[in-house]
Amino acid sequence: MADVMTSAQPTPTDFYLERLALQTQDRKERYKLLVDDLDQHDIASLHAALGGDNETDSEGNKDSAALSVGRRLALAYAEPPLAPPDVLSTDTSGITRLRTAPPMQRTPLAPQQWSTNPFVNMGRRFKRWANGDFRRRKRESPSASWKWVATRRRWILLVLIFGQSIIAANQMRTVLPGQGMQWLEITILSLFVLLFAWVSAGFWTALMGFFQLLRSHDRYAIDSEVGDEPIVAEARTALLVPICNEDVARVFAGVRATLESLRSTGNDQHFDIFILSDTSDPDIAIQETYAWLGMCRDLGAFGQVFYRRRQRRVKRKSGNLDDFCRRWGARYRYMVVLDADSVMSGQCLTRLVQMMEVHTRVGIIQTAPRASGRLNLYARMQQFATRVYGPLFTAGLHFWQLGESHYWGHNAIIRLAPFMQHCILAPLPGKGSMSGEILSHDFVEAALMRRAGWGVWIAYQLEGSYEEMPPNLLDELNRDRRWCHGNLMNFRLFFSQGIHPVHRAVFLTGLMSYLSAPLWCLFLVLSTALLAVHTFSTPDYFPEPGMLFPVWPQWNPTLAVGLFGVTALLLFLPKLLSVLLVWIKGSRHFGGPLKVLMSMVLESLFSMLLAPVRMLFHTRFVLTSLMGWAVQWRSPSRENSDTTWGDAIRTHWSQTLLGAVWATGVYVMEPTFLWWLSPIVVALMLSIPVSALSSRVSLGRFCFQKRLFRIPEETQPPRVLRRMVNLLTRMNTAMSAPSFAQVVVDPVPNALATALGTSRHNDVEPIRQRRDERVARAVAEGPAGMSSRERLDFLDDPVMMSQLHYRVWVDSRAHHSWFDLGLPGRESKYLPTFS
Questions:
Q1: For residues 83 and 98, is the Cβ–Cβ distance under 8 A?
Q2: What letter would DSSP give residue 178?
Q3: Distance CA 150, CA 160 (A)
Q4: By C-alpha distance, which of 451, 403, 417, 511 is closest to 115?
Q5: Dihedrals φ, ψ of 566, to 5°?
Q6: How close are the terminal C-alpha atoms of the chain, in Å?
């Protein structure tokens, strides 16, 4: 700064006062800054004068800017003040501090080490039995009756699945030309039985869900015995929102809409909200603090809405939850975990707490979130599918599982005491890609909760829980890549000691959700290989020596058509039943009876086009996970983004080429067989245009106007969703936060960042020396020379932040980009208001 000034030009003090006056709220205070003799001071004395200490030795104080933090904030936010006195206070050194979290109440957490080797577990059990101390653990449950009902239902499910699969296997054997006697046919038949059983399980789950939803009352529903009981003062609930480099406007629009809905119920005094950030982008971190402060000021939510950004980011989301439990878990009886795109109504949250209060041996209650909020054609079809078909499968899961159900990691309430005691996750032992930190923590936490004797239920009929879908196929595949790796890792816990059989089945279904893709792919490849064998080889009519009669290859097209029809019926009947249920319950909010039927048909055709593409991608995900390739854990897109043609071509060109080569090879061998394979190869060859066009927002809007893929949340949006959309629109147009350079240079943003810093270490020589070195290097190199990690360190450390602010203004060697980027024009960065 000093390099560009001459003695006749204004001094740095003049520029500093001018900038501070520009951001001062009160006109009289602004006038005093400009006309008093403060411009006669140097920068150090100016800060001392602003801080009320005119006797400070400017040469001996290396943190002069820290003295004026409180005064700078008071000038910018005079009426109303920035925060209440208990929030905006001072630390032990007398420096202004803005508290973003409540006082800690630490609880020691110790994860139990995994025992995943079944032989070791059997040996330990035998040793305990031999020593005479083998005792069966007693497990309590909300009600003993549901356990017997669940056991009977699950045996019936197993009989249905295996009986149906055995019949289908016999039919498949007769379809094969060698009657399933050759090694290739045996392999194909084995794969078919496994995959048919997987399809059959989904069919019976949806079928029982259909009958469950037709009934007016479910005596085993978790809310069947819950009234509108008042919530006691001790039933404190924390709403946790773990985020990492998310769309800040979307996150805080959802949080604010949820809080406002809670306040409308009159029960908001029982709830606190924690924004738990693992953000690694410094500019996004600054936006988060500004959004948090703006919301707290607008709603008077200081002391109810808290913000914490971790400096040591381990174990991803589960580590973030562990950190909350360790610091503040003892203050609350329950926690509700939300995703960055979650929105929940106040009535839904209140109902969850009431359920927990009535059922004192329930550990987790999972809601069934409804997808909404997307405009892309792809996302709207997925929203329609989850809204129409999803309730059948969710109700079916509840029918078979009851109190040993799923937990999906968000939009669920958890009893904190048993969670902290039993559900803290240790890393998986060993080396390689299938060891280390558990990625998909939700299924594992549910299994540990049930192992400890606490129930895990699905409130499948509870309304008021919402989430968003990925906007396009590429974003969905990026999410599936992470989920695939996590589910493969979780299967290592299948033989872990004490896990309930139902949750072992949950680990198996999680595995099959992705392993079914390479199995289908292998089934199709072997079927093509079988065709090639019978096309290019001479049949062996006497496979066994001494045979008197030949064995003729047999093709049974009629049986093949029948088997194909049965398989298609298992896949598509749940969709027909879903539409029938919508007709019975009322289809007006789905666009009408004809429109919902047309939407189902179009969505089914679209799913058929996507199934082979997903199959190949999931196959690749499984193989790369097993080979140990790194997983990119990026936050999903929260925008209605289109897929460009370039991205579609780069992503799907290999599937297109494979489909063309596959179709050509089959046509050369046997043209008639191509008709059977056409749904696969045609879908692969069309993958590029399908991926690109389905992501278009314009097509999504067109279908909305034609009442296609309508859902009630679009036709008649709930109040909490309408409020969220309105807030998001206003935040996207009005919300503004300073950049890192502005936080360093600009007086008021710097004061705010300094007050927010949490790394307030003791003033000891090694730390002081390290701070001086880092500040000097940052001053000389400018913001471009600092990594994201270094910028975050400065945001965390109030001493380094205030020292950097002071040095940039007084050091003639400061890099010019600090002022080029830190003072862009006369724009002032106030906290936005959305009242």
A1: yes
A2: T
A3: 15
A4: 451
A5: -65, -45
A6: 40
- Please count the structural domains in the chain: 1
pLDDT value of position 51? 81
DSSP β-ladder status, 334-337 and 412-415: antiparallel
Give a yes or no: residue 626 inside a domain: no
Dihedral sign for Cα atoms in the order 49, 50, 52, 58: negative
Which residue range(s) make up the domain with 795? 12-99+745-822
Amino acid letter for position 288 = E
Quote the pTM value: 0.88
User: What confidence tens digit (pLDDT) does each residue in 100-114 have?
Assistant: 999 999 988 888 887
525 membership: H or E segment, kind and range: helix 501-536
648/650 Cα distance (integer angstroms): 6
Structure tokens at 808: 């940039």
Q: Encoding tokens for residue 815?
A: 């890099």
411: left (phi over 0), alpha (psi -120 to 50) or beta: left
**Which segments of 686-739 does DSSP mark as H helices, in order?**
687-694, 697-705, 712-715, 719-734
Q: How far apart are CA 387 and CA 294, in angstroms?
A: 34
Tokens of 641: 């983004």
Q: Is 240 helix (H, G, I), strand (E, B) or coil?
A: strand
Within a domain: 214: no
Among 275, 335, 327, CA closest to 306 = 275
Q: What is the pLDDT of residues 307-318, one digit of tens each?
A: 999 988 888 888
pLDDT in tens, 172-187: 777 776 665 677 778 8
C-alpha atoms less than 13 angstroms from C-alpha of 210 in its C-beta half-sphere:
20
Residues 6+ apart with CB under 8 A from 721: 257, 343, 372, 373, 466, 713
Cα–Cα distance measured from residue 419 to residue 428, given in angstroms and rounded to the nearest whole number: 19
Instruction: Report CA-CA distances (Å) from 705 to 198, 313, 691, 702, 800.
Output: 38, 45, 22, 5, 55
